[in-house]
Design a protein that fits this description.
- The chain is built from seven helices and 20 strands.
- A six-stranded antiparallel β-sheet has the order 9-10-11-14-19-20, sandwiched between helices.
- By secondary structure, it is an alpha+beta fold.
- The protein has two domains: about 120 residues, Immunoglobulins (Immunoglobulin-like), CATH 2.60.40; about 230 residues, Extracellular Endonuclease, subunit A (Extracellular Endonuclease, Chain A).
């Protein structure tokens, strides 16, 4: 690492001061007077740089342009005409989320003059626009981004569902999936709990044994029962990034009952659903009825509450256009408390029905920017968020 840092410093130094001797050793009147302009139109792969030549130094400017580098890469040059005045150059092929150094240059018969060095950072790669039946087709609930710069709101695609993952809590912020009859088949439950190998390098991977002895279940977000069309689909639900420390009586009782109700009663063979599940807060009661804040040596946070939002509509196309004020919305927000439930109380989820508005207000108070249905029409969204399922 020290060798690479040293090389970087050398390259940056060469870039910043290359050809500076032309300006130092010759009288300023012999070289053009040039300044580097502010970089504009910065995207993930492009930017616009340029400069201004106020004086040609007594000899015509035969070449002008900009030179740029990351500091660790060889400098690149793009020419932009001749003569004095302002000019711009379009930089292409840049890397997303990367810092660059740029300066303008001008050449006349006496040599090359360089302007001041300006640094800029390219944007993150823009997220792709989700298509119909994509888990976040109705909106990205926390505007999660697939960049390690956002470890508490990291957008992750597990193919059969998507999530915002929180590295610091060792659980998701939310997980989203689409459900229809085609997702239900005859594949048996795989039970292959395992660490998720596709987390960013260096992030802690929650293990299949991380919940052992904690008194909490490895509670599925996207249920195994919602992904039985293939072995790959079902197996994906046993990645530990799809788990949350869940009170045993809650998981086997009302939560299992809610999953079955959504799958069999609300979706069935004629409907489809967009489903979101998340958690927040800290501290749940385990099977010994003891309040626990973290498990796995502090690597996994036990949430205080777990929630689910389900949007139901008849199977079809143009889903966003078909969602209206009569669309079914089911929202629950339940304490992660083993003392409150029984394994046989599979309908107890009905005691915790609420509205999306109420859910968002409570989750937001914990510093999580939950905002559901962002892609739904403005004229429809308020009605959906105010719905209380009966």
């Amino acid at each position: 690492m020290k060798l690479q840092t040293g090389i970087s410093i050398i390259i940056i130094s060469i870039f910043l001061y290359s050809c500076k001797k032309n300006t130092d050793d010759l009288k300023n009147t012999y070289l053009p007077d040039i300044t580097t302009s502010v970089v504009i139109n910065i995207g993930s792969n492009t930017a616009t740089a340029g400069g201004n030549i106020s004086n040609d130094g007594g000899s015509a400017v035969t070449e002008r342009g900009v030179i740029w580098s990351t500091g660790t890469s060889a400098p690149a040059t793009i020419q932009s005409g001749t003569g004095t005045g302002s000019f711009t150059s379009n930089l292409t092929g840049l890397l997303p989320n990367t810092k660059y150094y740029v300066k303008a240059y001008a050449t006349n018969a006496h040599g090359t003059a360089y302007g001041n060095t300006i640094s800029f950072t390219t944007e993150l790669t823009p997220p792709s626009i989700p298509g119909e039946n994509d888990p976040i087709f109705l909106g990205n609930p926390t505007n999660a981004i697939a960049s390690t710069s956002y470890p508490e709101n990291y957008l992750k695609d597990n193919i059969f569902y998507k999530m915002a993952y929180n590295r610091n809590r060792g659980t998701s912020v939310w997980i989203a999936w689409h459900l229809q009859k085609e997702d239900i088949g005859s594949t048996s439950r795989q039970d292959d709990y395992r660490a998720d190998p596709n987390l960013p390098i260096g992030w802690y991977q929650v293990q299949n044994s991380s919940y052992s002895g904690s008194g909490f279940d490895r509670g599925h977000n996207c249920p195994s029962g919602d992904r039985t069309s293939s072995i790959a689909a079902n197996s994906s639900t046993f990645l530990m990034t799809n788990m949350v420390p869940q009170a045993t009586t809650m998981n086997s009782g009302p939560w299992a009952g809610l999953e079955d109700f959504v799958r069999n009663n609300l979706v069935g063979t004629n409907n489809e659903a967009y489903i979101f599940m998340g958690n927040y807060g800290q501290g749940g009661y385990n099977s010994s009825n003891t309040l626990v804040n973290t498990i796995d040596g502090g690597n996994v946070t036990v949430p205080a509450k777990i929630w689910k939002v389900v949007v139901i509509l008849p199977k079809g196309t143009n889903d966003l256009n078909r969602i209206n004020s009569t669309t079914t919305v089911l929202t629950v927000n339940m304490p992660n408390d083993n003392r409150l439930y029984t394994s046989s109380g599979t309908s107890a989820w009905r005691n915790y029905l609420t509205t999306v508005n109420n859910l968002e207000n409570e989750v937001n108070s914990y510093g999580i920017p939950l905002n559901l249905f962002q892609n739904v029409a403005d004229s429809v969204r308020p009605a959906l968020k105010a719905k209380l399922y009966h």
